[in-house]
Amino acid sequence: MTHPRVAGVGLTRFGEHPERTGRDLFAAAGLGALDDAGVDPDDVDALYYGNFMGELAEHQGHQAPLMAEAVGLDVPATRYEAACASSGAAVREAVTALRAGEADVLLVGGAERMTNIGTAGATDALSIAADDLYEIRAGMTFPGAYALMARAYFDEYGGSREDLAHIAVKNHDHALPNEYAQLQKEITVEDVLEAPMVADPLGLYDACPITDGASAAVLVSAEYAERHDLAAPVAVTGSGQGGDKMALHDREYFARTPAATAAAEEAYDDAGVGPDDVDVAEVHDCFTVAEVLALESLGLYDPGEGITAAREGDTHATGDLPVNLSGGLKAKGHPVGATGVAQVASLTKVLQGETSWADDVGDAEVGLAHNAGGTVASATVHVLEVVA
Amino acid sequence: MTHPRVAGVGLTRFGEHPERTGRDLFAAAGLGALDDAGVDPDDVDALYYGNFMGELAEHQGHQAPLMAEAVGLDVPATRYEAACASSGAAVREAVTALRAGEADVLLVGGAERMTNIGTAGATDALSIAADDLYEIRAGMTFPGAYALMARAYFDEYGGSREDLAHIAVKNHDHALPNEYAQLQKEITVEDVLEAPMVADPLGLYDACPITDGASAAVLVSAEYAERHDLAAPVAVTGSGQGGDKMALHDREYFARTPAATAAAEEAYDDAGVGPDDVDVAEVHDCFTVAEVLALESLGLYDPGEGITAAREGDTHATGDLPVNLSGGLKAKGHPVGATGVAQVASLTKVLQGETSWADDVGDAEVGLAHNAGGTVASATVHVLEVVA
């Protein structure tokens, strides 16, 4: 099988842009990706678009054709929604279509407008990623759900708020040179521990911010890349998806995310690599504890070992396995529907050696992107490799 | 290429079920489809699910894993949203995955809960299928948009409200023996013409009702069908999708729907058939005039010729090209996210000879399903054929 290539990527700066519409944000990212790829826009076969809360934030469904039009494309367009894994799902379907020979050039991306409806509005909109009948109406919030997962983890494996704080500190440090990141701000372990508590044991600095932004990538078939002599050395060599029961109370464990494990196993198998081959990863750290659960569920660390990875420096740019070099959701920001493709965009740049951390990271050849929805009732994993 | 088979289908009765949640509705349809298919539920690889307005009607996004759980499946699940073409988009992606060998058995379906939020709530939710900034805020409604399209058609080709009325009468007649239909009620041309005007020239009986309901189909690879000796004579032999500018004012014509034409051309080409080969069709008749636009855009009638097809009896069960034998959206009902797969379910039964109209229809071998989103900014077309 020949693997689809990432021909180009585009991002808006993540942050607070309440005055910019979703279509304005996505147009910037989409045109940026097309420009970066250097492909003829007329060659684009379709748009695969991820968005999560447009109905509530912009009173706008049916966004995919609107976004195609915003980028100036007259192509079929479909929106994928899997909560925070929406554009991860879009990447997966695009990879399937390219492999099947159904298309040669696909624009894949996502956008989310969140800050225009305020913190209360965004918090309400985010809650629809959980089970409304049995979780949200009972008073659960997302910080509350991840706090339960953190408590379960501490109970089963040990660990402390300070261990988690090191994850926040690391991801903020990674974001410092990232001009697309929302929070380019150095923080200390003390800052994290002294921040207001949101849902014990998670404080304000354990959570990602609320973010407006968009992301896009041009994925092309290997044949197209060759035919057009594109400089596209990074391929998506593995794709996987997993699902889980929606509500936490229906699951066997709170301290594991089997959907991510299923997605990772499928993606590793697909790519013919294993967790030991991964040089660099972008994982879904909507809360600090989510990074721990991801590292272990993806097989990058044994159960109980992920909690100290940041504290020990392993997952820093200067460590053995740099995780979230972009700053992650935590510091880069988390415009929900844009996050999955933003991870692919960030990884692509790292694998091409285009990162401020290049001196530390060296020649990374295998990257992994992990995008999760809700309390990981949905997960997608993609393996990216330098193939040329 | 071997074509995916429709191994089984399931529907809830379409109608007013304000007390039933989306998951309740979808569980019924999904389990019905699995039962009809006779496949081992453990063999299902993934759920492809269409839903449009769950965020507004049920305060519930991220519905796909919830629906997988409702059917008792522990599989990856993704939601597709393309307004009223949401589950048509799900079918298309499922077909791609089966053809690519990424899966052997897929549950595809959709659900919509609408009547629980009342007519005003549903009308507001439906409006997010149009351009909120430039159409809805300016006062446009969907009946208003289709009224503009009807007026443009009358201006360009002629035709009358009475011609349109015959479409409503035909589709109500078709629905009479359909136990899943919302409106099993005979109507006359006079009833249609005398009904309250909604948006001139479209009256109440020119519009589909507001509907709760769910649909599902089990699609399997040809290899799987053979290996398990399934009685699945109907295959999806062609798939196509088209897109258009979202807002009517950005389009060149109101009396054509190029997205449907693009989708049909792709699907015909894919299946190796032409419009003349189509024996029976389910088209997206959200308003009577939409059936006319569909017939012409799909190449089943020349421009200007579709308006009298129902009046002349051509598209009745007893005519040359039976259209909307299920009753169509007009009489069967239109639970938005469920409609695309419901069309496939209805066609499959017709092609298997399992329709009350079998004596009239005879041995139909090629069927066409046309699902449209908004004012046809999205369209999917599938060709179904009896292959065994």
**What is the CATH architecture assignment of chain A?**
3-Layer(aba) Sandwich
Q: What is the fold named in CATH at topology level of chain A?
A: Peroxisomal Thiolase, Chain A, domain 1
Question: Over the alpha carbons, how many angstroms does the gyration radius of chain A reach?
Answer: 19 Å
CATH superfamily of chain A: Thiolase/Chalcone synthase
Please report the distance between the alpha carbons of the first and last residues of chain A: 15 Å
- Tally of contiguous helical segments of chain A: 15
Integer count of domains of chain A: 1
**Sequence stretches where pLDDT stays below 50 over 5 or more residues of chain A:** none
Report the CATH C-level class of chain A.
Alpha Beta
Q: Could you give the order of the helices and strands of chain A?
A: EHEHHEHEHHHHHEEEHEHEHHHHEE
Helix content of chain A: 25-40%
The chain-level mean pLDDT of chain A equals: 97
Would you mind describing this structure in some detail?
Two copies of one chain form a homodimer. By secondary structure, chain A is α/β, with parallel strands linked by helices. Chain A has one domain: 3-Layer(aba) Sandwich (Peroxisomal Thiolase, Chain A, domain 1), CATH 3.40.47. Helices cover 38% and strands 18% of the residues of chain A. Chain A has a five-stranded mixed beta sheet with strand order 1-7-4-2-3, with helices on both faces. The model of chain A has no long low-confidence stretch (mean pLDDT 97).
